Amino acid sequence: MVKPPFNVDALFPSVLKPLTLGLLEENARLVSENGALREEIARLKGLKGKPDIKPPSSPSGMDQATEKKRSRRDEKRRRGPKKPSAPIEERVIVVDGVPPGSRFKGYEPFTVQDLKIEARTVCYRRERWLTPDGTTMLAPLPKGMADHFGPELKRFILAQIHQGQTTVPRLVELLRGLGVDISKRQVVRILTATNEVFVTEARDVLRAGLAHGQWISVDDTGARHQGKNGYCTQIGNDAFTFFATTFSKSRVNFLELLRAGHGDYALNDQAFAYMRNRRLTGSVIAKLVAHPARRFADAAAWTAHLEALGIPQMKVHPDPVMIATEGALWGAVTAHGFLDGAVILSDDAGQFNVGLHALCWVHAERLVHKLDAFTEAGRKAKEKIQSLIWWFYADLKAYRAAPEPRRKAEMKARFDRIFKQQTGFATLDRLLARLHANKAELLRVLDRPEIPLNTNGSENDIRCQVTRRKLSGTTKSDDGRDCKDAFLGLSKTCRKLGISFWDYLGTRLGAAVGTPVPDLSDSVAARCAV
Q: pLDDT digit string (tens) for 14-44?
């Protein structure tokens, strides 16, 4: 037995209590680390590990609890018969054996909705003519006919995969059951080979959202591509959604995505301001400012410029190449007119902390909610702080609905009173100090009431990527990855704009639609301008 460094029995209660609490907190941390190590060992051995059950967007229920309650009377009034949107075909059913002398009293309507799905094969006999000069003239195929599968079939396949979230083998089995002679390879080709127009439109939607939106909300989740772990980043607001899967979740990667398809780098006032804000050494900034070059077409040109200035060889902190590259990327974002005064709302992940930044209140409160308390005093202190945060959050919601400039100072002072408290619970006090350091980002809504208080919209958007990951595991080709991201983003964008994704696919593929869907980027720009 190891002899203790001091006599425990001789310790006073005032000394023993904080020592015990510290040991309990350290024990909780070690238990958590031990569990993570056990799961990692099980994974390496190929054993079935602990199920990964994700917490809801607000495990404490803060966001739901601070919503205005609806009465049952209001909910009852909202109910009512819903009329079918499809054209109604009327059919008259007669009564057999009507006795003589009966009087006709009209019709009693009974509406039935049904669906007719059938395979159809059309053979187009295209005229061929040989002109006197030896040229062959061939009659063109109808609009939308580019190969041996028609636009309606392609629309059905794309809708089932990306909106219905089915798998390719199940879809092939369904189509064959309906009488369509198609293979898995042909379905995959329809999903990836000829969809450049959709990938381009998804990029244009991102550009419209970044150029016209007053705010964007961002998030990311795990994704696999070509058998390797990667990350899918979501960018969007209440008018659009954009997804991009990459192998990095760095700030450089995020800034590259914010360029929305452009590959250039720019050194302008915004770029140099970014570098100074990130505390880049003045000598490095001076070299960049002194050189006349300001725009660089691609990464190779930018790297060559840094090499010519000798910046990679400079041994300074922070990394001059990384910070200079981030600044040049931010300069390119602003040079293209993106995020001009727009707020970036995130869950406090470091890679998203660029530009005018705001933080999610649900994620901030979750840190308090997940805190372990081992004494009655600690539990009471935690409950008190939680109730104050919930109350403050409810008032922020009310302020956002009806902003009053005179309340700004009051709300800021109240924030200080909550997060500067000394509760005596050491871990809670450190957490409150950490949250208070983010005061400007948590209270961004006081100056910009149009931005949300949480990233629930982003978490809702990105669930479709999680579902696709569980169904398909990984994408194998770059085209497949790009199309998956594009179609899932376009589907979410259509929903936010109130546009039928089925009609959108039909319009782009040349199928029959009642009302053609215009370019989504124009609709996003118009919605953001409202």
A: 666 676 767 777 777 777 777 777 777 776 6
Q: How far apart are CA 232 and CA 486, in angstroms?
A: 12
Distance CA 206, CA 258 (A): 9
Over residues 84-103, the mean pLDDT reads 86
Rounded (5°) CA angle 82-88-92? 115
pLDDT tens for each residue of 473-498: 899 999 999 999 999 999 999 999 99
Cα–Cα distances in Å, from 71 out to 56, 66, 391, 401?
Answer: 25, 15, 21, 20
pTM of the complete model: 0.84
* Other Cβ atoms closer than 10 A to 188: 18
The per-residue b/e assignment along 385-422, b for 16 or more CB within 10 angstroms, e otherwise, is bbebbbebbbebeebbeeeeeeeeeebeeebeebbebe
* Residue 496: HSE in the Cβ half-sphere, 13 Å Cα cutoff: 27
- Say how far apart CA 483 and CA 443 lie, in whole Å: 38
Count of positions (residues) in the chain: 530
Sign (positive/negative) of CA torsion 13, 18, 22, 27? positive
Q: Spell out the alpha helix ranges (H) of 193-319.
A: 196-212, 251-258, 269-277, 282-290, 299-309
Find, among 378, 370, 389, the residue nearest to 423 by Cα: 378
CA distance 154 to 190: 7
CA torsion sign for 431, 436, 442, 445 is: positive
Q: What are phi and psi of 27, to 5 degrees?
A: -65, -40
CB-hemisphere CA count at 13 Å for 318?
13
DSSP character for 160? I
* Spatial contact of 284 and 308, defined as CB atoms under 8 Å apart: no
- Residue with tokens 């390797």, as numbered in its chain: 228
Distance CA 237, CA 528 (A): 9
Beta bridge partners of 296: 265
Contacts of 305 (CB under 8 A, 6+ apart): 291, 293, 296
Q: Which residues fall within 8 angstroms of residue 37, CB to CB, at 6 or more apart? A: none
- Look-up of token digits 């041994």: 315
List pLDDT tens digits, range 255-292.
999 999 999 999 999 999 999 999 999 999 999 999 99
Do residues 285 and 275 touch, judged by C-beta distance below 8 A? Answer: yes
